[in-house]
Amino acid sequence: MSDDKDNSHDTDSGAKASKIERLKRLKALKSKVKKSNVENLRDEALGRKLKSEELRQKLREDLQPEEKVERKSKLLSYSIEETNQWISKQKDKQSGFDNFDDLALKTYNKEISELNIDKDLHDTKKKDNQLINQQKPTEEQIDNMKSIMKLNQDKRKRKLGDSGVYINQDNRKFNEKLDKQYR
Length: 183
Hints:
Order of helices and strands: HHHHHHH
Number of strands: 0
Number of helices: 7
Strand content: under 5%
Helix content: over 70%
Radius of gyration: 43 Å
Distance between the termini: 118 Å
């Protein structure tokens, strides 16, 4: 029996020793993997840096000093008139409005300037302390306003074209019916 106890004790200590060795090897392998990952990341970062430096160098080489001088001399060869024409073309391309309030004001002023208003009559009525709300427009002014509105509507239609701006066919039909109703 004592031999069995010694053998079981030896196997237990042997198992513990092999377990400890395996843990040590596992730790060593983990540290080796970690070290390898760090080195790979360093190499990858270095490779990226080298590639970006290569690209910069290539770009520098692509634009030789001669080409730079040619480009500058070409730009300097334009006359003031040609430069001003080019600038005005660029401004025309950027004719959009940043602020819709400015666009509305400009449109309003344009439409008001197109109206034929008897300013003298307006001033005399104003001096006579007649309220503007009590003034009724003449038939001529009403016809004038109708014609201006019709022109604006036609301009919008021409701008949109026959197709117009519709979400789908049902929307197109609905808008056409509205147009017929208000004509």
